[in-house]
Automatic annotation (TrEMBL):
One Pfam family named in its UniProt record: Beta_elim_lyase
CDD domains: Tnase_like
Protein name: Tryptophanase
Keywords: Lyase, Pyridoxal phosphate
Similarity section: Belongs to the beta-eliminating lyase family.
Length: 457
C-alpha cells in the first residue's frame, strides 16, 4: 500500500518568520497577554482560527475574475444561489458579509426578548446575538461531550431528554427554533449524527418547533457521518449533507469555514415570510439582497469553494491532517479532547496545568505559554470566552477549559504539525514550573475575550 498524500500541489507560497523568545515575551506583554492583540508578523504558525484563513484553489482564483459586480441581479449571485440550492435544498438565499451577520439578520426576524433557543453548545457569537436580544440559549449537548476521554463518535449530538425538558418547560411561542450546530465548534469540533438530526426533527415536530442549522462546518460534519455512521459509507458527502439539511427549514452559514473563502456568509431557507422580513434586515444591515455585503467576485469564488469543500478527497486530506496533529499529541501524553475534532485539536488545560486556579484562567495561561515557547498562536475556549452571566455578572466556569489549535484549510504542511506537536510537548515537560495565571485588568460588556486586557497574577 502506498502512503497517503495530499490531493493538491502548491502554486503560491507566503513567507512566515520565526522570532526569538525575548521578542515574544515583550510582544505578549505589549498585547496585554491577549493573543488577539498580536500582529500577524509576531506569529510563526497561526492556529487562532480556521475561519477565513484557508487557501483558495486555482479554480476559485479564476472565478474571482469572472465576478459580476452589479449592484442588483449579479450573475455571481445566481451562481451562488444555484449552488446553495443544489447542496442544501433550500429555496431562498441571502448573502451576508460573514456568519454572525447571518445570525444577526435571522435572529432579528425570529428571536424576541425572553425567548429560549435550545441547541448543542451554541457558538459564542450565536449566543451573543441571542443574549443581546435578552433571550436565552440553552445547551442540550449530550453529557459525553464534556468527558474528553469518552470516545463516543458523535459528541456534537443533542440529548433528546434535555431538549424535551426545554420543550415541556417553556411554551411553544417562546421557542422560535432549535439550533443544531454542525460540527459543534464549542464542544470540540464534534459531529452530529444523521440519526440524531432525524430524532431531533421527530421530537421537535411533536412540539411544533422548527430546526435551523448553524452550518459553518457542515461538510466536515457530513464527512464524519460517512466515516462513522453505519449505512452511510457508500453515500457521497453531497448526498449526506443534503439529507441533513432536509430536516431543517433553514441555515446560517459562515462561508469562511466550509465555503473555503476568506470572507462571507449567508442565510438559506425555505420559509417565504421569514425570507421577506429577513430581506428588509439584509438591506438595512448588509446591502441589497443579491450581494448582502459580499463582492460579486467573492460570491463567485464561494460557489466554487462550496463545491470543493463537499468533495471527499478534499475532506479526507483536511481532516486527516488534524488527526495527524492530534495523534502526535496523544503519543506525547498530552491531554486532548477525543475523538479528535474536524477543524481543530483541543487541549485540556485543567489536566495540563493543574496548578493554575480557574480564577486565573488556565486555558489562557496555556495558550500564552505555547506562544512564548514557539510563536504559535492558539485560542482560549474557556472561562474568558464563556464570559459573565448576563444576570449575576459572575464568571461562568464552563465544564471544560480548552486551548484550541484550529488548523486553517490547505495552508500548513505536516512539517508544521510536527513543529507544533514538539512545541507543546516542550511546554508539557516544564508544566510544573508554570505556577501562575492571569488577572483581568479591563474587559468589555459582551464577547470580552476579543479585547480583554490581562496582567500576570
Ligand atoms: N457559527 C460557528 C459554529 C462558528 O464557528 C462561527 C465562527 C460563527 C458561527 C460565526 O461566523 O466568524 O463568519 O461571523 N467561528 C470562528 C472561529 C470565528 O474561530 O471558530 P463568522
Amino acid at each position: 500500500k502506498l502512503p497517503y498524500a495530499e490531493p493538491y500541489r502548491i502554486k503560491m507560497v507566503e513567507e512566515i518568520r520565526q522570532s526569538t523568545p525575548e521578542e515574544r515575551e515583550q510582544w505578549l506583554k505589549d498585547a496585554n497577554y491577549n493573543l488577539f492583540n498580536l500582529k500577524s508578523s509576531q506569529v510563526y504558525i497561526d492556529l487562532l482560527t480556521d475561519s477565513g484563513t484557508g487557501a483558495m484553489s486555482d479554480q476559485q482564483w479564476s472565478a474571482l475574475m469572472t465576478g459580476d459586480e452589479s449592484y442588483a441581479g449579479s450573475k455571481s449571485f445566481d451562481e451562488l444561489h444555484t449552488t446553495v440550492q443544489r447542496l442544501t435544498g433550500y429555496k431562498y438565499l441571502l448573502p451576508t458579509h460573514q456568519g454572525r451577520a447571518a445570525e444577526n439578520i435571522l435572529f432579528s426576524v425570529l428571536v424576541k426578548e425572553g425567548d429560549i433557543v435550545p441547541g448543542n453548545s451554541h457558538f459564542d457569537t450565536t449566543k451573543g446575538h441571542i443574549e443581546f436580544r435578552k433571550a436565552h440559549a440553552i445547551d442540550c449537548t449530550i453529557d459525553e461531550a464534556f468527558d474528553i476521554e469518552n470516545l463516543y463518535p458523535f459528541k456534537g449530538n443533542i440529548d433528546l431528554e434535555k431538549l424535551e425538558e426545554v420543550y415541556k418547560t417553556y411554551p411553544k411561542e417562546k421557542i422560535p427554533f432549535c439550533l443544531i450546530t454542525i460540527t459543534c465548534n464549542s464542544s470540540g469540533g464534534q459531529p452530529v449524527s444523521l440519526e440524531n438530526v432525524r430524532a431531533v426533527k421527530e421530537l421537535s415536530d411533536r412540539y411544533g418547533i422548527p430546526i435551523y442549522f448553524d452550518s459553518a462546518r457542515f461538510a466536515e460534519n457530513a464527512y464524519f457521518i460517512k466515516q462513522r455512521e453505519a449505512g452511510q459509507e457508500n453515500r457521497t458527502i453531497k448526498e449526506i449533507a443534503k439529507e441533513v439539511f432536509s430536516y431543517g427549514i433553514g441555515m446560517t452559514m459562515s462561508s469562511k469555514k466550509d465555503g473555503l473563502v476568506n470572507i462571507g456568509g449567508f442565510i438559506a431557507l425555505n420559509d417565504e415570510n421569514v425570507f421577506n422580513t429577513a430581506s428588509n434586515f439584509t438591506i438595512i444591515y448588509e446591502g441589497f439582497i443579491t450581494y448582502g455585503g459580499m463582492a460579486g467576485r467573492d460570491m463567485a469564488a464561494l460557489a466554487v469553494g462550496l463545491n470543493e469543500a463537499t468533495e471527499f478527497e478534499y475532506l479526507e486530506s483536511r481532516i486527516s491532517q488534524v488527526e495527524y496533529l492530534g495523534n502526535k499529541l496523544i503519543e506525547f501524553g498530552i491531554p486532548i479532547q477525543k475523538p479528535i475534532g474536524g477543524h481543530a485539536v483541543f487541549v485540556d488545560s485543567l489536566k495540563f496545568l493543574p496548578n493554575i486556579p480557574r480564577e486565573e484562567y488556565p486555558a489562557q495561561t496555556l495558550a500564552n505559554e505555547i506562544y512564548k515557547e514557539a510563536g504559535i498562536r492558539t485560542v482560549e475556549i474557556g472561562t474568558l470566552l464563556a464570559d459573565r452571566d448576563p444576570g449575576t455578572r459572575e464568571n461562568r466556569y464552563p465544564k471544560l477549559e480548552l486551548v484550541r489549535l484550529a488548523i486553517p484549510r490547505r495552508t500548513y504542511t505536516n512539517n508544521h504539525m510536527d513543529y507544533i506537536a514538539v512545541a507543546i510537548k516542550n511546554v508539557y515537560d516544564r508544566r510544573e514550573e508554570i505556577q501562575k495565571g492571569y488577572n483581568i485588568t479591563w474587559e468589555s460588556d459582551i464577547l470580552r475575550h476579543f479585547t480583554v486586557k490581562l496582567e500576570e497574577a
